[in-house]
Amino acid sequence: RGAFSGALREKPGMFELADTGTILLDEIGDMSPGLQGKLLHVLQDGEYTRLGGRHPVRVDARVVAATNTQLEDAVASGRFRGDLYFRLNVIRLEVPPLRERREDIPLLCSHFVRPYALRYNRPVRQLPRELREAFDRYDWPGNVRELENAVRRYVILPDLDMALAGLRRAVPTAATRPAAAPAREPAAAAEPPEVWPDEGLSLRTVAARAAEEAERKLAVRVLAQTRWNRKEAASQLKISYKALLNKLKKWDVEEPPPRGDRAPGTEAERAGRTEREAVLSTG
Fold this sequence. Notes:
- The C terminus is likely disordered.
- The protein is mostly helical.
- α2 packs across α4, α5 packs across α7 and α9 crosses α10.
- The protein is flat and about 65 Å long.
- The termini are far apart.
- The protein has a two-stranded parallel ribbon. A two-stranded antiparallel ribbon has the order 2-3.
- Helix content is 48%, strand content 5%.
- The protein folds into three domains: 75 residues, Rossmann fold (3-Layer(aba) Sandwich); 71 residues, Helicase, Ruva Protein, domain 3 (Orthogonal Bundle); 64 residues.
């Protein structure tokens, strides 16, 4: 019998099933602290004990961990164990967001169309040219999962106008959503993009520079709105505090000096405050 009601036979766990193979630990940055300690024990000793078991079970599995969070920041804030981070961080592969590798979009579309057409018994064999071009222009804040869902939606309902409207209705993330500009400052989106026609740059380089400039303007605007509270600005931009500091250093952006040290208000108000302060100090 097992350790709980209805456990009448042994049931191997995921590590045991992955023995001599590979196990993928997805979204490891969201793992609870208690589970992190147990995982560290398995990785360090190569064995574990089943729930209700009496003898350790040895396992030999290749571990692949994936996350979309900055584990270094999670370690610094105490949300992720440092010893587990260094145990996992043997071979590190950083996959850039889909908007930075647009040449993969046609390949991924072809990869997704075929299995979904078979699953739903649909006649779609490839996406129309207008939709492929729209996919190539879209920024894909949800990365490959968002692209997969868009392809699946079109395979099920092959309506081009609906698919294009779906891209236009996509909810932007905080990093891509234009923030409200102060009344004294014109909206940055109204400014024409800067182009470098005489440098012989590729379209990808120009796009990267334009994106970098847009990120800088948005970050400076949010910092101004939060009175240069960097932690609050990083929270609104949906990036880590450390990432914001690194970007400000890269852009050579510093907090502007205060506009004088005189107290706000009219001359009469300032004179009144000075007189009251003098009375209080002598009283």
